[in-house]
Design goal:
The chain is of the alpha/beta class. It has 3 domains: 243 residues, HUPs (Rossmann fold), CATH 3.40.50.620; 120 residues, Anticodon-binding domain of a subclass of class I aminoacyl-tRNA synthetases (Four Helix Bundle (Hemerythrin (Met), subunit A)); 50 residues, no CATH class. It contains 15 helices and 15 strands. A 4-stranded parallel beta sheet has the order 4-3-9-10, sandwiched between helices. A 4-stranded antiparallel beta sheet has the order 5-6-7-8. It has a 3-stranded mixed beta sheet with strand order 12-11-13. Strand 9, helix 6 and strand 10 form a beta-alpha-beta unit. Helix 2 packs across helix 3.
């Protein structure tokens, strides 16, 4: 049947038909760079990384744009608190974001535009809205008149008469209507500013994405994505200003990933449960975090817990161990993936990027492949190993060869435990010597000693292999 996508705009799954044959234009709202990225950002980033990878696997030429909001009230507030500048704060956290992206194994977007580098496009778009009677000035500010756009609320399914100015709506008595939102803001003393037809100021949040997406992707483009928290008001406002300006849809398909709680509580600074990406990756491999998110459908709400992450880490190791076993068989590297398995995988992913079912298929093949290897049946195993490698590659699930992964995990664990490889190797060699001399009680005592340190031993024909839990 081909790829089907749940479109937030229509509220149903639709067959994906690109606007240009063989090409996909994808825009995803990026982060506001006033602080380090957290696990909620990680879910959105990994969701659209998988979507990006899968579209490329299907053979599409994908133009993927993900922006940075690098001028904003929160950035300015952070700069004032630190006695710094908004530019310096943004630069610092963009660098941290890119470090996190690399650590998570994300593919780089085609473009990563910054709002501050697109002021000319933003001003041009606001002037276009003014000329069409879809923007009005109040002193040095410019607002969008929501009541004048008849389709307002079609994405979020909110009706104007039910909306009130609240936490996500900027309250200003000077506005014609409480729901009107800022396109341009007059800069206060000491704030960053740019010259404009309305005086010195800076762009509103929503107009940035409209200007940047249109510049790099045109209008309409294929897919607009982001977290579910962006549906209203951010994406609703993007639609209003973009479609009012150009009289055509902004995007054809709207994709939103679900909310993330921490141990069944909403993630918030007041509760002290905001987990940074680097905080997690200090103790876990990035593959475990990716597997953890792939185990739930991207649209489903999800609860983040250490127990769930531990289980995901174990699952990743199982895949690596299976591939390591498979690679030990002669000729596997040159084998072609088993076509039937790839088609089964594609069928699951074509159903709105259903990664939980795709992961279930992967682990089913891990179990069956291990049974074959346990029985010494190498016939047919090579193509299955190749298929397994291809499936996890499409999902971006594994970042290393098995041996490199286990070495990386080993180094991290030893560092966190304050142990050195030399000490462990010395105990392993001492145990091997005891076994050679048939001093079994002493050998068992060393094994238990290592187990208490979280180290497991595997006696192989090539010698003793040790791993950390």
């Amino acid at each position: 049947m081909g790829l089907r996508i749940y479109n937030t705009l229509s509220g149903r799954k639709e067959e994906f038909v690109p606007l240009r044959e063989g090409e996909v234009r994808l825009y995803v709202c990026g982060v506001t760079v006033y602080n380090a990225s957290h696990v909620g950002h990680a879910r959105a980033l990994l969701t659209f990384d998988v979507i990006y990878r899968y579209l490329k696997f299907l053979g599409f030429r994908v133009t993927f744009v993900r922006n940075f909001t690098d001028v904003d009230d929160k950035i300015i507030q952070r700069a004032n608190q630190e006695g710094s500048t908004a530019e310096a704060i943004a630069k610092r956290y963009i660098a941290e974001f890119r470090r996190d992206s690399d650590a998570l194994g994300l593919l780089s977007p085609t473009q990563e535009p910054k709002a501050t580098e697109h002021i000319a496009e933003i001003i041009s778009l606001i002037r276009r809205l003014e000329e069409k009677g879809m923007a009005y000035r109040v002193d040095g500010d410019v607002y969008f008149p929501v009541q004048a756009f008849p389709g307002y609320g079609k994405l979020s399914r909110k009706r104007l008469k039910e909306l009130e100015a609240g936490a996500r709506v900027e309250v200003d008595a000077r506005k014609r209507d409480p729901m009107d939102f800022a396109l341009w803001k007059e800069s206060k003393e000491g704030e960053p500013y740019w010259e404009s037809p309305w005086g010195r100021g800076r762009p509103g949040w929503h107009i940035e994405c409209s200007a940047m997406s249109t510049k790099y992707l045109g209008q309409p483009f294929d897919i607009h994505g982001g977290g579910m928290d962006l549906i209203f008001p951010h994406h609703e406002n993007e639609i209003a200003q973009s479609e009012a300006a150009f009289d055509v849809p902004l995007a054809r398909y709207w994709i939103h990933n679900g909310f993330l709680n921490i141990n069944q509580e909403k993630m918030s600074k007041s509760l002290g449960n905001v987990l940074g990406i680097q905080e997690i990756l200090e103790h876990r491999e990035a593959e475990a975090l990716r597997h953890y998110f792939l185990s739930s459908h991207y649209r489903s709400p999800m609860d983040f817990s250490e127990e769930g992450l531990e289980e995901a880490a174990t699952g990743v190791e199982r895949i690596y161990e299976t591939l390591e076993r498979g690679d030990s068989l002669t000729g596997l590297a040159a084998a072609s993936p088993e076509r039937a398995l790839i088609e089964m995988f594609r069928e699951e992913m074509d159903d709105d990027f259903n990664t939980p079912r795709a992961m279930a298929l992967i682990f089913d093949k891990v179990r069956s492949l291990n049974r074959l290897l346990d029985e010494g049946k190498s016939d047919g195993a090579s193509s299955r190993v190749a298929a397994l490698k291809r499936m996890v590659e499409i999902l971006g699930l594994l970042q290393d060869e098995p041996q490199a992964f286990f070495e990386r995990k080993k180094r991290r664990w030893l560092r966190l435990q304050g142990l050195s490889p030399e000490v462990i190797e010395g105990l392993v060699q001492k145990r091997d010597q005891a076994r050679r001399e048939k001093r079994w009680q002493e050998a068992d005592k060393i094994r238990v000693q290592l187990q208490e340190k979280g180290i497991t031993l595997e006696d192989t024909a090539g010698g003793t292999v040790w791993r950390v839990r």
